[in-house]
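#struct-help
A.M.: can someone run this one for me? Single chain, 436 residues.
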Amino acid sequence: MFILRTVAFASATALMTTVSGVAQTPSYATNGDATLAALLTEALEGNPRVRGAFQEHQAARSRVSRAAALPDPALSLTQHVRGPQTRVGPQASGVSLSQTFPWFGTRSDLRGIAAAEAGIRGQSHHERRAEVVHQVKLTYYDIAYLDRALSITEEEERLLVHYEALAQARYSQGFGQQQEVVKLQAEVTRVLNRRQNLLRERADFAAALNVLADRPVRAPVPTVAIGERPAARVDDELLQATGVRERAEVASARLRIESGEHAVRLAQRQYRPGFTVGVAWGNVLGRRDDPGMASPPPDDGSDQFSLTLGASLPVFRSNYDAAVREAAARLSAAEEAYRDEVNGVALAVRSTAFQLAAIERQLALFERALLPQAEQALRATEEAYSAGVTGVLELLDSEEVLLDVRLGLARLRADYMKALADMERAIGAPFPEEGS
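D.P.: on it. Structure tokens below:
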């Protein structure tokens, strides 16, 4: 039974939490259907898009440790062809080593941007999984409807064959007309044609299901039957909050805001200089000139050592101003995208809730009124036809009404399960939950 309540949606800001990693892989509801559970497991393990998204996530995670790494130090070797003379002798060669350091906090922001990007890739992987689960369920329940429709048409064919035999008997006894037999034979042909159309549709859906699971397109798909219809409790406020918290697209939007905040700080740090620290060693030979050899200095031939400290000069401020404006604009765009995702969750939940409620009302109408009435009407018409009170056209009309009701009921049952899958996709969490 549904409990539908329209409430004002709580502020998305209160539900927004910082996501620096990847959330736990979302689960899904199977409603106790072991065949569906096996298909979903196979699809999630074999679907190329899911596997590709996972590899993209792994690649992004590998970039996090590299994003904040210092640039490689620079090593210089100098060999003087004609070394400069110093007081303690000529300088023959030298070695220098330098390391550049960015402004304080730059590496932290670079790491934050890379971590947010890895999180976004992780959420993209979850999004792919959720979409595959959704598509498998929709296809599965379409096949369930077609299998039920095939069963109904088989029963209809047997019923029409029975009517044809009855009409043949009436005609042979002089109570009926040959036209009635011909009409019934035409109806049997119509049912056979309908059956072929259903089989063609089923083949298409089975192929689509196999593609989702990365199986051979002609692999057989067993007959699908919908079990007991699960009850679902729909609470707009609760489901919208769940969607904001769990849906992968919303989590990705939050991570883009986080990345944008790091990017703004990073652009602002460009106004600050970077630093370079270096050490140098110079190889000095002893004095070889006559004065030096005659009276060598106390530190004759001593090597030279030096330290250097340098800084970049951020003088082209117009370039940095543009970078800050760009980063700020991207952050604003990310915030708008987040609000759009939150609104999308609210719309999807609201729309699917109405759809579920409408389907449930239709199911109640079909199960409690239309189906019993159509069955009763057909039984009455059969009795009247057997007694010769009515003709074959009235019999076929009653039979066709019952057929339409049974097919409509099968379609509604499949649509109900598909609507549950739509709600699950909208909120990014199992629906209905076990025991709900």
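A.M.: thanks! The mean pLDDT is 87.
D.P.: also worth noting: Residues 30 and 37 are 6 Å apart (CA to CA).
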